[in-house]
Design a protein that fits this description.
Blueprint: E1 2-8, E2 11-17, H1 22-43, H2 48-116
Antiparallel strand pairs: 1-2
Length: 127
C-alpha cells in the first residue's frame, strides 16, 4: 500500500492507494484542486465546503455525461457490428449465387460445344 499527499484548496491530505497508482492519484487531486480554484474564481469565497460540494457535483455531472456518451457509442458500435455481419452474410450469399451462375454458364458452354462439335482445326464445325 502506497501513500500520496495531495493538496486541495491549500490543504494537504495524505491518501492511501495501490502501489503504482501514486501518479494517477496525484493527478486526480490536481484536477479536483483546479476545479475548486475555477469555482472560487467564478463565485468568490463562498466557503470551502460549498466549493467542494459544487466541484463534486460538477465532476459527477461530467462523469454522468461521459457514461451516457459511452452507452451511446456502445449502442452505435453494436449496431455497426450487426450491420457489418448482415452485409457479410449478403456478400456470402451473393458469392454463392455468382459461383452457381458461373458454373451454370460453364456447363451450358460445354454442352453447346459438345452439341456443335469442333472441326479438326480447333474451330467450330459448320453443319
Amino acid at each position: 500500500m502506497a501513500y500520496v499527499t495531495i493538496s486541495i484548496g491549500g490543504r494537504a491530505y495524505r491518501m492511501a492507494c495501490d502501489d503504482g497508482q501514486e501518479d494517477h492519484l496525484s493527478g486526480l487531486g490536481e484536477e479536483v484542486d483546479a476545479r475548486i480554484e475555477q469555482l472560487r474564481v467564478a463565485f468568490g469565497e463562498i466557503g470551502d465546503q460549498r466549493l467542494s460540494i459544487m466541484a463534486a457535483i460538477t465532476l459527477a455531472d461530467e462523469l454522468s455525461e461521459a457514461r451516457r456518451r459511452i452507452q451511446a457509442l456502445e449502442k452505435e458500435a453494436s449496431a455497426e457490428r450487426a450491420a457489418r455481419s448482415a452485409a457479410t452474410r449478403r456478400l456470402d450469399e451473393t458469392e454463392v449465387r455468382v459461383a452457381r451462375g458461373i458454373t451454370g454458364a460453364a456447363e451450358r458452354l460445354e454442352r453447346l460445344t459438345r452439341e456443335l462439335g469442333t472441326s479438326p482445326s480447333g474451330g467450330v464445325g459448320m453443319g
